[in-house]
Design brief:
mainly alpha, elongated
Length: about 220
Amino acid sequence: MNTSLFVASPLPASLFSGAPRFHSNRHSIGDFVPDPVRLAHFNALLVQISTEHPQVDADQLATAARELILQARDGRIPQSIRERIRRAGAMDLMQSDPEWETGAQAAIAAATALDYLHGKDTLIPRSLPVVGWLDGAVVVETAWPTLADEVRDYLDFCRLRRIEARLRGEDRRYFGFTRDQLDDARLAEFLWIEHCRRTGRSSYLAADEAGRFRVN
């Protein structure tokens, strides 16, 4: 399992309410100024995904963007944003998998976040160097508490499905292995691992017979 999906670098603290901000009244990211109407829609989207996520104002967004730009090397997308993009990729795979039925609450959060990420009407232009995906990263960060366990289960499901495919001699990607079979597959794997552990650590000989064999 890709651990970077679940242990990610933090986004700038300035994005979150209560974080100290030493530069106020910043509203631009380079030459780009976020549109107030789009910012209002963006915050409404965050509330739709999670009522617990703080609202983001133009100052917070610009301060976070400048911090990331200063940290960036050779104009690369910062690691914290790349990690959220990878999370979005896992969410996308999960939502598009015909053999996985996402839980209701997670499905709503994933669909809402992915609709924004796939859309063109974004708060920050994707073409903006370094931080063009900052708003997308915030959306993923907002949805992730609802989705983390679901994505973890889905990735484990994919792993066990690959094993099941080999056991069945299946070449097809989808062959009727569904979420309903996940717990049974996990139990079967656990029992097999326990069997291997026990037989690997103990002798097949009874204790009173072991003394018959000696190395001189």
